[in-house]
Specification:
This protein is of the alpha+beta class. The protein has 6 helices and 7 strands.
């Protein structure tokens, strides 16, 4: 009986130790497996938190850059719009200046046409050409204008001097059936210029060498009446009778 009781006790202790070791091994293996199956956030919480914080920081930087880019685009758009408005104002100003210059030139041209006329001008070589000559207005108010009239002699006019304006020759009377009336001359008109003829002696070079005295030649030219004595004006009108071509008086 004693031997039987002792033998089981001797073999029980090693078996218990083996079972404990096996159970510990199994528990260690299960724990390892369970641990390997856990999410990374549970296995490495500090590392995952660092990743999340880093991602949030990158998003903030991206949003900041996008906001700066948006503001920069708005500033560039505002600058371009301002430039376009300035250019538009400059274009409108230049257009207004051009229009003003054109209007001023138009008025100047109209003024010149009103107080100028094409008349025959004698050139140095003896040729007579038509040129536009300006006649500044002598009467105030801007109601006068220059007209050209051609008529043969006699004109049938009585000229006089304007008392209020020295050197101004006016038409005091016009014969109803005269050449002047037929040409359109009216009482009260102001004479500004007329054609006149002058005879001069022209001597060719060969005649000078031979001791010649030359030959007379009559030239017609425009004679300005402004400021001239009335008697001189009447003589100038009468000199047109010397015109060898018998042309009308201007």
């Amino acid at each position: 009986m004693t031997n039987a009781m002792t033998s089981p006790a001797r073999y029980t202790a090693p078996v218990c130790r083996l079972l404990a070791i096996s159970l510990a091994f199994l528990l260690s293996s299960e724990t390892t497996a369970f641990t390997s199956q856990l999410p990374s956030a549970l296995r490495h919480p500090q590392q995952e938190q660092h990743v999340l914080l880093s991602s949030s920081s990158d998003d903030d930087a991206t949003r900041t850059l996008l906001e700066k880019a948006r503001k920069l685009r708005e500033e560039v758009s505002a600058v371009e719009q301002s430039k376009a408005e300035v250019q538009k104002l400059n274009d409108a100003k230049e257009q207004a200046e051009r229009e003003a210059e054109m209007e001023a030139q138009k008025k100047k041209d109209q003024q010149r046409l009103r107080y100028s006329a094409e008349v025959p001008i004698l050139k140095d070589m003896g040729d007579e050409v038509m040129e536009r000559v300006d006649f500044p207005p002598r009467l105030k108010g801007g109601k006068s204008r220059i007209v050209t009239i051609q008529a043969p002699l006699p004109l049938g006019l009585i000229l006089g001097e304007e008392e209020s304006i020295p050197g101004l020759t006016s038409v005091d009377e016009v014969a109803e059936e005269g050449n002047g009336a037929a040409a359109g001359i009216k009482q009260g008109d102001i004479v500004r210029a007329i054609t006149a003829c002058q005879t001069t002696m022209e001597t060719p070079t060969w005649q000078l060498l031979a001791g010649g005295i030359g030959q007379p030649k009559t030239k017609r030219f425009m004679y300005s009446v402004d400021g001239r004595p009335l008697e001189e004006v009447l003589n100038a009108i009468g000199s047109n009778r010397m015109d060898v071509e018998g042309r009308d008086v201007w």
